[in-house]
Amino acid sequence: MSYGRDAGGERTVSRGGGGLATALRGLVEQHDVTWIANAMTDEDRLVAGEQQRGTILLAQDPLVYDRFYNVAANPMLWFIQHMLWNLAFTPDFDHDAWTSYASVNGKMAQAVIDELDRDPDALVLFQDYHLYLAPAIVRRERPDVLMSHFVHIPWPETDAWSVLPPEIRRDVFAGLLANDVVGFHTDRWRRNFLRGCVDALGASVDGDVVSHDGRRTHVTSHPIGIDPDEFDALATGDDVLECEREIVASRPELLVLRVDRTDPSKNIVRGFRAFGLMLERHPELRGRVRMLVLLDPSRQDIPEYADYVAAVEREARALGDSVDLRVDDDFARSVAAYKQYDVLLVNAVFDGLNLVSKEAPYVNTRDGVLVLSENAGSHEELSEWALSVNPFDVSEQADAIYAGLTMDPAEKRRRLEGIRSHVREHDLAEWGAAQLADLDRVRSPS
Amino acid sequence: MSYGRDAGGERTVSRGGGGLATALRGLVEQHDVTWIANAMTDEDRLVAGEQQRGTILLAQDPLVYDRFYNVAANPMLWFIQHMLWNLAFTPDFDHDAWTSYASVNGKMAQAVIDELDRDPDALVLFQDYHLYLAPAIVRRERPDVLMSHFVHIPWPETDAWSVLPPEIRRDVFAGLLANDVVGFHTDRWRRNFLRGCVDALGASVDGDVVSHDGRRTHVTSHPIGIDPDEFDALATGDDVLECEREIVASRPELLVLRVDRTDPSKNIVRGFRAFGLMLERHPELRGRVRMLVLLDPSRQDIPEYADYVAAVEREARALGDSVDLRVDDDFARSVAAYKQYDVLLVNAVFDGLNLVSKEAPYVNTRDGVLVLSENAGSHEELSEWALSVNPFDVSEQADAIYAGLTMDPAEKRRRLEGIRSHVREHDLAEWGAAQLADLDRVRSPS
Fold first, then answer.
1. What's the confidence (pLDDT) of residue B218?
2. Which of A37, A120, B158, B243 has the fewest CB neighbours in a 10 Å radius?
3. A265 and B392: CB-CB below 8 Å?
């Protein structure tokens, strides 16, 4: 989440990119938690000065923060972990940006250590790819603290990590192994991490436990879920209902939907090509089907991201009236569209989990069909109810969209019900509890 | 190798791209071998009609051959295996090209079966990434024939293979496992293949042996070498000596050399950036050092390759007089330059082995220093005598070039002698013998 001001000067809190901030906020609300984060906006920096109990926002030097966030974390680590680099040309490894990454990690580690001075029994839960180096710094100062780290994005295999110089990739693995628990959304990323520990550090692996540098780290996988109550409430909220009336009034018979951040990992360009190819193959559907594409603008300070939005807009224009593309941050419209789709396209190149593939079916009212990339983390859970596609096979995606649009109604219902009951059962609370249970298991080995 | 006609109408045989064709010709000359290959040039197709003992050239339908060679094999498989795809945008998997790949493999398999009818005891040795599907076809018809397959390019990890649709990547792995032996240049590629067999097929792996579909396949690694006698002769040949005199007459005090095909895997663009950065950091070397870059034009029918040459030429122009770039096929000049370099830059993004890193030091006369990518296959053998660099770290490459240019003479000599004696000892004959020994081991298990 981040803080801003509305037109009347009142402080606002925005949901933050992706579902992660919301997911974590749910966890935070249910426990006695101190949230430590970097101040990102000017308003964040003001809040950082005020420092209320429960949230600590660290003010960072803006230049250092920019290199940390807009070079080292994105695109560098994000592109490595989603296999998005065009390696013949990019990147040139940026040592200055990595120094900034290390500096922000150091400041974050110090804030954790300060908090442990106030509350020595606190558990420390690191989140995601911005903080790979912090755990080792905390560990040096506090050998006995219980720490876990959840990585929300894919963990690629050893060769992909060669974009980092050898000593830096060792630091990344060693930083994570300073935790007692490292968690991923899927077995696939977990397995890649375990193999990487062997390859990068020569660590030894026994089942789920990595031994390195005299310590043991448990490596687990727990796919994150959604908060069903939140989405029940959202789906019937006034702003969503208003958006939904608009969509219903203007929609053709059939609606193909995608909802994403404008991120190259999401495979938006190939999604348009697949929809266009589907129309070529089935001209009888022209006029009867529209593709609604709702994109939350993301990381537009990063050239690769700005270029990607331009490519997305070019591809959409080529499809003319059959596509309705909106690039803005409008979550109410997204939820309204979730309710109204006939086919939901999630064709990510790689994706740590993909919450849209859980949120949207949960509130859908039309027995809509999920077309799901085999490289999305949620594919491990949802594949039996989805139409699986390879993200690089546009032809297959075109056929899957058509199959979804023309599927037998009973089969559509069976699939949607399968996803909904899975999502209801394996919810955000289960994921949060699993984090804490992992740490309990380390504290009191059976 | 391929056949052409010279200006006088005489048939010519050219060396072929890369060192592989030469390396294999050496093996062929020493044994009673039938070489089966695809006809690539018009002259090849004439030779195919003549069919002499010892060489069988298969005429392929030109359109099918084009899709096989210029789409499915290159860039598709080559880019997957060297991790060169820009996955947010390319490729769209091309089913028609894969059908052509399967068709050429089928024709090749039939030629092998026909040859086995003539000589039922023959061993079958498949080479490289053009023929992943042929072994399974031969195996179905000839369950007891001894077959090996040597893959000369990197074998990437499981996630990189996801560019192929699931059933096709299974066909690739299953095709290779129809052999009795699968060989790679390095333990790194061998290990990736073994893990991939588990991931793609659920095969079981015990040491070097993969069990799948009721068969056992030995997976080995043998780095290819050069023929020292050939290079002794080349280095003192008239055409090389003439080229060398030219280089000596025009060279400045210090020469940085690279010799490559114009392939995006070779990392030529970053090499120029590294040389430029070295000059920025050490302006005292301006005028005293030149970068000589000899590039053999490669696969120019493929857009990605043509674009790459353009990018290489742009980058070279930016460096002005300090660079001498030649894009032509002139092996005599390459060998002359091998003898004259002070620093040899081999900074490949990924490379199966890289024969230049063996050929050039073997004939070098100036105690030249090898700067070698950690992602080149030869790094497993040569790293102790080379300056290792990460291919994405231009800054480190700049520093390594400088370190090579200014290294203590005794240290330079020690390193070059180390490479030379390794290359002399582990030569092409050893590699060829290892192929045959692997098959003998399968025939008569101890």
1. 98
2. A120
3. no
Convert the pLDDT of each residue in A379-407 to its tens digit.
999 999 999 999 999 999 999 999 999 99
Tokens representing B24?
């294999």
CA distance B104 to B122: 22
Beta bridge pairs of residue B2: B14
User: How many whole angstroms separate alpha carbon B238 and alpha carbon A399?
Assistant: 62
Peptide bond into A252 cis (omega under 30): no
Cβ contact (<8 Å) for A88 and B394? no
Distance, in Å, from the CA atom of A266 to the CA atom of A407, rounded to the nearest integer, reads: 25
B87 → closest Cβ in A349, A390, A396? A349
Instruction: Give pTM, 2 decimals.
Output: 0.94
In this complex, do A392 and B265 lie within 8 Å of one another by their Cβ atoms? no
As a whole number of angstroms, the distance between CA A179 and CA A191 comes to 17
Q: Find the chain B residues whose C-beta atoms sit closer than 8 A to any C-beta of A.
A: 83-89, 91-93, 95, 156-160, 162-166, 192, 195, 264-265, 267, 269-270, 273, 308, 311, 349-350, 374-375, 390-396
Q: Which residues on adjacent β-strands are paired with residue B191?
A: none
**Chain B residues with beta carbon closer than 8 angstroms to that of A157:** 157-160
CA distance A299 to A84: 15
Amino acid in the structure at residue A284: E
Do the chains contact at B162 and A392, CB–CB below 8 Å? yes
Euclidean distance between CA atoms B224 and B423, whole angstroms: 10
Percent above pLDDT 90 for chain A: 85
**Which whole number is the average pLDDT over A22-31?**
61
